[in-house]
Amino acid sequence: MELYRLDAADLDAAECRFLQARFPRRWARAARCLRLEDRRSILAAGALLHRVLGLEDEAQLCLDPAGRPFLPGGPSFSLSHSGGRCVLALGRGRLGVDLERLEPDNLPAAEAALRPEELVWIRPAPLERFHILWTRKESLYKALGGYEDPKQIPALGPPWPEGLFVKSTVRAGFALSLCGEEDPGELSPVVLP
Fold first, then answer.
1. Could you give the 3-state DSSP secondary structure of residue 43?
2. Burial, 52: exposed, middle or buried (Cβ in 10 Å; 0-12, 13-18, 19+)?
3. Rounded to whole angstroms, how far apart are CA atoms 125 and 1?
4. Predicted model pTM
5. Class of domain 92-183
6. Which of 71, 93, 114, 136 could make an SS bond with 181 (beta carbons 3.0 to 4.6 A apart)?
């Protein structure tokens, strides 16, 4: 698997104009966001699709029955963005990536998002551990093609559901989890300028 990162602050005006013209659905989605950081993060995801996969137009993408984008004939990919940062994972087969900025405001969601044994596990370091479990659940959710209730996805593993591999890390105020059919190895994204 390959992992790429782009900070939204690194988008320049020319790339934004390209995205506005060639990725109109993504542009419209970004425009609906209230926070500038969220708008730029959504656009950074489009920039990663262009820079890494060579997409010249979002019309090249299709949606599977679960609503996930895919590139016919291309590699499997998964996108995530948070806090002005975006990541793109490439691999074979089922794949999911999730990135979340460590935000204390997210902690009240723990009761609704985590299983009882997971709530016990986060107690020693709630901010980091909650975000680790949340990104694991999201990456598994993406790789598995959706679940009726993400809370039911076991995130303490291994073993992981359906023989998948999951790796998680916390660095520089962000939690990152990558899930796929192959062992992702070390989580060191290629940072794009």
1. helix
2. middle
3. 29
4. 0.91
5. alpha beta
6. 93
